[in-house]
Amino acid sequence: MQKERIISLISNPETINKEDNLFLENIIKKFPFFSISHILLAKGLLNTESVRYNRKLKQAALYSLERKHLFKLITQNLEKKSLSVEEEAEMEIIHVEDTPEFNDVETDLKIGKPLKFEETEEYSFAQWLSLTKVKKIDRSEKKTKEYDLINSFIESNPNIKPEKNKFFSPTETAKTSLVENNELVTETLARVYLEQQHFEKAIEAYKKLSLKYPKKSSFFADQINLINDLKNK
Questions:
Q1: Whole-number Å distance between alpha carbons of 96 and 208
Q2: Per-residue model confidence (pLDDT) at position 209
Q3: Closest by alpha carbon to 168, among 80, 79, 70, 77?
Q4: What's the CA gap between 102 and 34, in Å, rounded?
Q5: Contacts of 114 (CB under 8 A, 6+ apart)
Q6: Residue 162 CB partners (closer than 8 Å, separation 6+)
Q7: For the segment 92-102, what is each residue's pLDDT rounded down to a tens digit?
Q8: What's the pLDDT tens digit per position in 129-179?
Q9: Helices H / strands E in the chain, number of each
Q10: 166 or 65, which is more confident?
Q11: In 10 A of CB 54, how many CB atoms?
Q12: How much is the average pLDDT of 14-25?
């Protein structure tokens, strides 16, 4: 019964809900080295907008046999943005002086909110892993037959089959982090730096985004001000 349910979740990861998350957590308690359960739980926490998602994403990367599969899974079926840059600017620009006094700086900066990587943000994802110094779990323990069966299934699953082009390597990406160009800088990358408390990197990212998207420059300027406030707390 458990095996069938896991296979169902593998086939339909976008449907994972809070009840499924509890089920997966129980599986992890029983079989902590079962990598698929960690990956599926990360996807489930993302689906449910859980504040636990960012932390679980790191753990899923620790247990993941192929991190490109993890990236492929968490970027599947994300709601696509249909707004233009101008419309996004109108929706997202929030001036510090207009925010209520009770708003917390970390809340305004969305620290702790799920990091939603787009399919084109392999670089941002690689930076997320490299900055946290993620190392894979040693799987020296003997796997059960059921474990092997389900892992074999996931390896052949077309929904998470990796693309032929090479996935970003966290190690190689870290080497080039000092020479980031504007094409690689995204709002998600800026938030990655914030989550890791690399405040200067986050500020630099927002400065580059301001030049890249001048219509949102006020929003990015406010983000920089909020970061400076956070640094001085």
A1: 20
A2: 94
A3: 70
A4: 43
A5: 45, 46, 49, 50, 51, 53, 54
A6: 66, 68, 69, 72
A7: 544 444 444 44
A8: 875 554 555 555 545 555 555 555 555 554 544 444 555 555 555 545 444
A9: 13, 0
A10: 65
A11: 21
A12: 95
CB 202 within 8 A of CB 194: yes
Token reading at 139:
């799987």
**Residue listed under structure tokens 């990861």:** 13
CB 29 within 8 A of CB 2: no
Our CA angle for 83, 195, 198, nearest 5°, is 110
End-to-end CA distance of the chain: 51
Task: Look at the chain and count its residues.
Answer: 233
Residues 6 or more apart from 158 whose CB is under 8 A from it? none
Task: Take residue 52 and report the two structure tokens written for it.
Answer: 């636990």
Tokens of 30: 């029983």
Q: Report d(CA 159, CA 85) in Å as an integer.
A: 31
Strand locations in 16-146 (E): none
Tokens of 84: 């233009």
